[in-house]
Design brief:
The structure is a single chain. The chain is mainly α. It has a three-stranded parallel beta sheet with strand order 1-2-3. The protein is globular, with a radius of gyration of 13 Å. The two termini are 23 Å apart.
Length: 96
């Protein structure tokens, strides 16, 4: 599908909270090596058995309320992540 191709080529995949905290899109992002960008503490807290110790290096967490209030420039924030850290994040996702 087109969505899978996009995830394979993207660096970041935005994962807003859906009807439930766990979204299939989140597992698709991880499977295809796309760093998930989470906006919900509920989603961030889902499946601790899956994330384990690598969670901090395998996703970006954005405070939803601050983002909605316009206090976070998502493009600026994501583009400011150093290449070395991006490589570590992608390697972490690939490994798990």
């Amino acid at each position: 599908s087109t969505q899978i191709l996009v995830k394979q080529e993207a660096i970041f995949c935005l994962e807003p909270e859906g009807d439930t905290p766990w979204r299939k899109s989140l597992s698709d992002s991880i499977t295809f090596g796309c760093i998930p960008v989470l906006f919900s503490e509920r989603t961030d807290d889902v499946a601790p058995w899956h994330w384990g110790h690598w969670k901090q290096q395998g996703r970006v967490f954005i405070d939803r309320d601050e983002y909605i209030k316009g206090k976070i420039d998502l493009h600026q924030l994501l583009s400011s992540i150093p290449d070395k850290l991006l490589q570590l994040m992608r390697l972490t996702i690939h490994h798990f």
